[in-house]
């Protein structure tokens, strides 16, 4: 473990997972200048999706909110894979979340609060960000939620 961010994760009882391997032709995260952009992160836990289906049908909003937390944790792991130390994060700039939604489900912002709240718990003020929460018909592997983040790094 290295640094204050990972110590905070440990205080919260969280472990940074291994980076989820790409499902297709992309990288989990890339750095451009002082920014790191993650690919969309599914709520994979040890290589498996804990739940599948549409939010508001097979998956409850509360279950999906927890899955969004997992997505954010996976996104932090992807950032670390590129920069080596999460203490290099100056701030989370943007979070984009996708919720596979039943036709009448309109609670996407509440679901994505799971990711936003986790980033705030772990990073404090550095975790405050802009965000988009989008309802979609289907996500890869029938995942209920997917989250991507963009972070700015401390300039050396």
Automatic annotation (TrEMBL):
Pfam families: YjgF_endoribonc. InterPro entries: Endoribo_LPSP/chorism_mut-like, RutC-like_sf. Coiled coil: none annotated. This is RidA family protein. Residues 6-149 form the Endoribonuclease L-PSP/chorismate mutase-like domain. It comes from the Bacteria. Gene3D superfamilies: RutC-like (3.30.1330.40).
